[in-house]
């Protein structure tokens, strides 16, 4: 069941949007997918091997960096000056075949008027491979990945500003779709319409507890638990 607001309000609010911006992980594919757990496990393995830690200690440090720095990679760069290219190649070297193509989502995205872009804390290669597996890669003009923001992740305002500049995006005419609520603060402050994409009630959700949250803060304009239906409703 969609959690989107009444369609008349949505149609009115999105009438001026000509740039549609989507997070990748747990947004363009649902949080019950096994892709993120695979990446998460490889991050732990990377840290354990690099630092000589047992799995439990590596994972605890990994989650600390993620919470404090926005990504584990940002923490590793800050503390150990790791090679980000090596890290990203290792952690995103996963099997994506468990993710089914989504022709309904593809049709809904394709029908949106204007430009479509991906904005992700993952790597460019990961975004392209995942979008290709979903069958939506040809629909996007480009992808702003973590390397394009000099490895400074969302939710930092500077990352969104770099994105706006790189792709000539007018935030007042753009909408952002994202699964992590605090990653929508800077887009909303910049003038974007914001849509929080949540899992369906009772669905498996591999995100961290602090990423979920039950309350909808003022910087979230719309909420949906079905991205495909939400986008399709905008075109009625």
| CATH architectural grouping of the largest domain | 3-Layer(aba) Sandwich
- Determine the structural class based on helices, strands and strand pairing: alpha/beta
The main sheet comes to: 6 strands, parallel
The amount of helix comes to 40-55%
The CATH class of the largest domain turns out to be Alpha Beta
Kindly report the spatial arrangement of strands forming the biggest sheet.
Answer: 3-2-1-4-5-6
Notable characteristics:
236 residues, alpha/beta, Rossmann fold, DNA polymerase, domain 1, six-stranded parallel β-sheet, 6 strands, globular, disordered N terminus, Pyrimidine 5'-nucleotidase, HAD-like_sf, HAD_sf
Can you walk through the features of this model?
By secondary structure, the protein is an alpha/beta fold. It folds into two domains: 7-31 and 99-233, 3-Layer(aba) Sandwich (Rossmann fold); 35-91, DNA polymerase, domain 1 (Orthogonal Bundle), CATH 1.10.150. The chain contains eleven helices and six strands. The chain has helices spanning 7-13, 35-51, 55-69, 72-80, 84-91, 103-110, 124-134, 157-167, 185-190, 209-212, 227-233, and strands at residues 19-22, 115-119, 142-144, 174-178, 193-197, 222-224. A six-stranded parallel beta sheet has the order 3-2-1-4-5-6, covered by helices on one side. Residues 1-5 have low confidence and may be disordered.
